[in-house]
Design goal:
heterodimer; A: mainly alpha; 13 helices; globular; B: alpha+beta; Rossmann fold; OB fold (Dihydrolipoamide Acetyltransferase, E2P); 2 domains; 4-stranded antiparallel beta sheet; 17 strands; 26% helix
């Protein structure tokens, strides 16, 4: 019991300490960061936030860009992954296993290696500087993981539920509406969050596809802040940007905490 | 005949799961499908419901060929072993779903559901989720859903196997009242032969995807057509003794008597069953099971005999009944 508590505490420190440090940095004046133990009249400041939020274009724009790309790529991912994982769960054992291995292979493939080819495609189709276009590779790269997670959720549902609905006369669409989607919603929520996170954090593709400074996503915008001067690293504004950038994620996880936990553990409702 | 199955079979990967199933069930008749697990009884039910495609043969309801119709077009009411109630909907909503997709207007839906829930005495639980009901109540909701369809055929797939023994006994008359009074053909799948005998007028014994015998409970017990049926029906199991010229002599445990002459044996163990006792007697022919009254004493010199007409002869090679 004691050991478990200690372990939980250690894990909390491990994961929260960097965040706390970032939070602290974002509210400190630069001098306090360099000389942490010096006594200063004025230690705290909101200047970093002001400079980040008042930059041109305002930082909130990047946040909205990222939210848009994240939302769209999550939507596209689920739109494709839900029907494909449903069919995969209904397939024969052998063929579904082959496809699953193939998907695991895809999921393990380092996507950075695809990135030059993607760039060529983007150039050919003139998809540069379009947030909608950016959501397409994100959705594609998230497919394997999303399909694998959702297939497990579908397979965990008792088959008799759908059989009963077929006898009652429900069509496939009606079964999705009334039975399948409500019952796998925990798995959908956890999958959606993983996809959203990927899109939120993705850097190389966003860096190369988007050059228009009004359309940057958060990671690229943050990198621009960090590298804005060759003489110094602007720790304060950078920390403020990361704090603002993580607020939506924290809210998201708090709202969906319950379904995520149940989705990751059991995957579905048992009879 | 209302429900007819003609040489129905299901084939998966060139292997027959069930084969040559021929059944007819009349209105107001309950036919039980029994057999060991994996014998194809649930598959047969799924073929009738249209949940699995039929590979061979044809199925008719009231003369209408339904072999290739979808489940919803067949007008069957089915009760599943797990009850298959949706956990996120209330009892009322569970029942309403089917009516809603069939386009029944709202006031009529409410009226019908009220009627059916009154019948199964669960109207006061209409707003509860299935998780808040007991096993017996869930079973009645599943039954209510089947009744609500007012189907041509009732299919019950092990409807009581998730209930404990006492509850099963209590629910049986209820189930008879609700389903059999609909005067529609009913097929009742169970692995419990007592339940089959209690519920059904006729029983079909399935073995490895084929029907071994369809008959009344009485005939299955007293005139089994094959060794498999003789062994499957009746507990404690029938005694099988080696006969002459490759035959097997089968004798029910309650037909065995003590006597002055006959097969000699030794008492191995005894089980008290309340209204009877079961003796395990070691003989040259192996262990013989004998059912006798609880006050029957055990003689010092055990010799066993039975009447010739209580003995059923089977061919050892084919396992089929051989008549004298």
């Amino acid at each position: 019991m004691k050991a478990t508590r200690f372990l939980i505490l250690a894990l909390l420190v491990w994961s929260l300490a960097p965040l706390t440090w970032q939070l602290y940095t974002s509210f400190c004046i630069d001098q306090a960061l360099v000389t942490p133990f010096a006594s200063l009249n004025q230690r705290w400041t909101l200047d970093h936030y002001q400079s980040v939020l008042n930059s041109n274009p305002p930082f909130i724009r990047y946040l909205l860009n990222s939210l848009f790309v994240g939302g769209l790529s999550t939507f596209l991912t689920l739109l494709l992954a839900i029907p494909s994982s449903y069919s995969l769960s209904k397939m024969g054992r052998r063929s579904s296993l082959v496809i699953k291995f193939f998907l695991i292979g895809c999921a393990l493939f380092p996507y950075v290696l695809l990135f030059l080819a993607l760039l060529e495609i983007a150039r050919y189709l003139q998809l540069g500087n379009s947030l909608i276009a950016l959501a397409v590779p994100y959705a594609a790269l998230s497919q394997p993981l999303a399909i694998l997670l959702l297939t497990n959720a579908f397979s965990d549902l008792p088959a008799e539920l759908e059989d009963a609905a077929r006898v009652e006369g429900l069509s496939v669409v009606q079964r999705f509406r009334w039975i399948l989607l409500p019952l796998i919603s925990p798995a959908i929520a956890s999958t959606a969050i993983l996809v959203f996170l990927f899109s939120w954090n993705e850097y190389p593709i966003a860096l190369t596809w988007i050059s228009d400074s009004g359309k940057l996503t958060l990671p690229v915008a943050m990198a621009r802040i960090a590298g804005s001067s060759i003489h110094s690293v602007p720790y304060g504004p950078y920390a403020a940007a990361t704090v603002i950038g993580s607020i939506p994620l924290i809210l998201l996880v708090m709202v969906f905490q319950k379904p995520i936990v149940s989705g990751l553990t059991t995957g579905a409702v048992k009879g | 005949m209302t429900l007819e199955l003609e040489n129905v079979g299901r084939n998966i990967n060139k292997q027959w799961i069930v084969e040559n199933i021929c059944l007819t069930v009349a209105d107001n008749e309950c036919l039980a499908l029994v057999g060991p697990s994996g014998c194809g009884k649930s598959t047969t039910l799924r073929l009738i419901a249209g949940l699995d495609p039929v590979s061979a043969g044809s199925i008719h309801i009231r003369g209408r060929d339904i072999t290739s119709l979808s489940p919803s077009e067949r007008s069957v009411g089915m009760v599943f072993q797990s009850y298959a109630l949706l956990p996120h909907l209330t009892v009322f909503e569970n029942l309403e779903l089917g009516l809603r997709v069939r386009g029944v207007p709202k006031p009529e839906r409410r009226f019908k559901i009220k009627g059916i829930l009154d019948l199964v005495q669960l109207w006061n639980r209409a707003d509860n989720r299935p998780a808040e009901l007991s096993g017996g109540q869930r079973q009645r909701v599943a039954l209510a859903r089947a009744l609500l369809r007012d189907p041509e055929v009732y299919l019950l797939d092990e409807p009581m196997s998730n209930l404990d023994a006492q509850l099963r006994e209590d629910i049986r008359p209820e189930l008879r009242r609700l389903v059999l009074e609909q005067r529609k053909p009913t097929i009742y799948v169970t692995h419990d032969q007592h339940e089959a005998m209690a519920m059904a007028q006729r029983i079909a014994v399935l073995h490895e995807g084929r029907i071994e015998q369809i008959d009344t409970p009485y005939n299955l017990y007293h005139n089994p057509e094959s060794l498999f049926v003789a062994r499957f029906i009746g507990r404690p199991q029938i005694n099988c003794l080696k006969g002459d010229s490759g035959s097997i002599r089968a004798v029910r445990p309650e037909s065995i008597r003590f006597s002055d002459e006959g097969l000699s044996g030794k008492l191995q163990s005894r089980e008290w069953l309340g209204n009877s006792q079961l003796l395990f007697l070691e003989t040259q022919q192996g262990v013989i099971r004998m059912m006798t009254s609880p006050d029957q004493g055990i003689p010092a010199q055990i010799r066993l005999t039975w009447r010739a007409e209580d003995e059923i002869l089977f061919d050892a090679d084919t396992g089929l009944r051989s008549r004298r």
